[in-house]
Each structure stands twice: as structure tokens, then as C-alpha cells.
Description:
It contains twelve helices and 15 strands. By secondary structure, the protein is α/β, with parallel strands linked by helices. It folds into two domains: 117-354, Spore Coat Polysaccharide Biosynthesis Protein SpsA, Chain A, CATH 3.90.550; 359-452, 2,3-Dihydroxybiphenyl 1,2-Dioxygenase, domain 1. The strands form four sheets. Strands 3-2-1-4-8-6-9-7 form an eight-stranded mixed β-sheet, sandwiched between helices. The protein has a three-stranded mixed β-sheet with strand order 11-15-14. Strands 5-10 form a two-stranded antiparallel sheet. The longest helix has 72 residues, at 2-73. The chain is globular, with a radius of gyration of 31 Å. The model is unreliable at 40-49 and 64-96 (pLDDT under 50).
Amino acid sequence: MRSRKVQFLVIxxxxxxxxITYYILMRTNASQLDTEHQQKQLTLQQxxxxxxxxxxxxxxxxxxxxxxxxxxxxxxxxxPSISIVAAELSNELPEQQQPAxxxxxxxxxxxxxxxxxxVFACNRVSVVKCLDNLVQYRPSVEQFPIIVSQDCGDEATKxxxxxxxxxxxxxxxxxxxxxxxxxxxxxxxxxxxxSRHYGWALNTTFQKGFEFVVIxxxxxxxxxxxxxxxxxxxxxxxxxHSLWCVSAWNxxxxxxxxxxxxPELLYRTDFFPGLGWMLTSRLWSELSVKWPKSFWDDWIRHxxxxxxxxxxxxxxxxxRTFGKIGVSNGLFFDKYLKHIKLSxxxxxxxxxxxxxxxxxxYDNTFLKxxxxxxxxTFDELRRNLIxxxxxxxxxxxxxxxxxxxxxxxxxMNDFKSGVPRTAYHGIVSFYYxxxxxxxxxxxxxxxxxxxxx
Length: 453
């Protein structure tokens, strides 16, 4: 009897020990699984950026492959059998992650200048939208090398740029040190970094010996004739020293106030537009020695820098910004910038006679024509009560008058260094109700007033 009790006790202890051991093992396994799960989650989080980068690379490679097949076999809508070209791909496809070098050649064999497109980038992977456009419309790799200058050191953005291989050059702003600013200017620190970046990148590019450089921000799309526009206008900068830039941008370029039937129409403007613009090495030599620490675009518009020089700008913009989020926090984007009309036509600017834009020709025609036009009111224009056809003039005499009228017309109504956007000799030209309109000061205009800003 006692023997059975001992046996029962031993068996009970064994069963209890088995359950305890099982329970401990289960807890341990569960803990390990939980730890492994957390590690997997952490690993996934760490791998996600790399995965996205590899996805971008794969997409670029696939697109390059398709473009190669189309070029190589001149096919439309179909792809030749991979077996036909498999042996050739490794030799003929552009190498990935190998950016081109900044070219040393500054002029082509025919004497035409090499004009680099200098793209400023920082930490927006969406730079690919800009680069896709530039690569798509570029007529010549040799004449228009694309140089991307990156600040910030953002790896995802750098990887996106490198995915273009030898189609673009990449230079990296080496000074990533913090910029010390006054406490009240802390919110403007981004503008200080942008100005530092511009100065370094322009110095680096012009030191190669180029005569012209076209500046593009990473949030711009370009028109089909973007390159042709600068190819046709660069000679004006050589001929006329009253010109100091050619801009692809019209600040008042909303579809409602431009003549879409005149994509070839160009103007002179006292206002520096930026947003896709060309300057000369001569101008950079002048500006670089006094380049500002911040707000370079407002600085360049000041009379001390402008010196009564003007820019060329188009009736219909050859650039359009898609960058609502940035250092400027979307200033003007919703109200104006997203409504800018991007030209869809291809104008052969290099084959057109653009001599009408030279100062002596322009001032003798444009300015004289303005002040013989019929004088009308905004109300007459708005209600279409003007009996005659053709262009007209609306007059303003004060700052408040200008701001009120331009606001009613849907134009940008701010001033920079006293200059209204797109103005030439105070005259702002636009298209309204199928009619050319010039918002102009009186004929005795004495010049821009800095107090109007």
C-alpha cells in the first residue's frame, strides 16, 4: 500500500514537473518570439528606406531598358524578344550609380557654347520629376549637361539623383556646418543655407570656364521648348549689356491672363523673375564677390545690384513649380503659383529674329506704343464696355491704386525694391477678356519708388 502511495507521489511530481517545465519553455519561446518580432519590426523599419531606394533604382533601370530597346530597334508599342539583345545589354545600358563628370568642354566644335543646367537639390526625392522633364526634352547631352548640386546630405535624394547614371552630374555642397543666426532670424535659417549653397555651386560651375549657366530649382517642371528658349536668347545677353538675365518664368503667367495664342512672345522686364533663369560668367564675377548670406533673390533685385539692368521673360512660362512645401512654406502657391500656365508648344526660338528685344529697338517701339493707346477703366474692361478693338491702357498713379487694380485683375500685386512683378518702366502687360492690356503709370513717370515695397 505504502509502495503504491510512493509511486503515486512520484508520478504526481513528475507530472507537475512536466507541466512546470512546459510552462517555462512556452514563456521562454513566447518571449523569444516577441523579441524576434520586435527585431523583425525594427529591421523592417531600417530596411524600408533602402527598399524604397532599390525600388527607385529598379524603376529607373526598367525605364532605361525600355528606352534602350526602343532606340536600338526603333520599335513603337512593342518590345523585341529579349533573346535578341540579351548579350548587348551589359555593354550598352548606362551604368547605375555612376554620375557623369562635369564636362571640361565649354564650346562645341561649331562654336556654340556649352550651357550647363544647374539643378539645386536638397532633401526632396521629388527632384526626379524635375530631372525626368529635363532629360526628356534635352536636345543635346553635349550642349546641355545637367549638373545637380545637392545640399543637406540626404541619402534618399542622393540615391534618386544617382539613379540617372551618366545622364547627369552630381556635385555635393561640402559645408554642412550649422549657420549661427540671431534668435529673431532662426526661422529664416533655411534661406541662409540656400544662399550658401547657391554661392558654392555657381562658383564651382563657372570655374570650369562656362560662359552661361541656367539655374533650375528641384521643384520645377519645364516646357518642351525650355532648352530651345535659352538657345535662342543667350546671344541677347552677349549683345546687350542692359540685359543681365533670361528667365523662363512669368510671375503673372496664370492661364486667365496670358495670350495662349502667342507662345513666341517675349518681353523685357525690370523685375528679376528667377525660377529657371540664365546668367553669364561676367555677371557672376560681379556678384560673387559680394554674394549675400541670405535672401539672395531679394538682394539681387535691389538697385545696387540691378543697376537698371533687365531680364527677358516670356508671355507663357517655360517652367512651373510643383513645390508647395519648402523653405517659403507654400507662400503664394495656392493663390498664384499652382495656376501658372506651362507652355505646351514648341517655338523655334533659335531661328527667330529676337532683335526687337534689344534696348534700342524695344524702347523705341514698345514704350512709344503704350502711351498712345486708349485709356480705359477697370470697370469698362471687366464689363467689356470698350467699343474699339485692340490693346488698351489702364493708368495708376499711386501704390494703393496699383495694388487695388492689380488685385481685381488677378495679378500679383506685391513689389520688390519698388518694382511690380513683370513691370518694365512701371508697365505691367497682360491679357484680359481676349485683349492686350497695359497697366501703366502716367507718362511723366519718374522711376521706381523703394517705399512702395
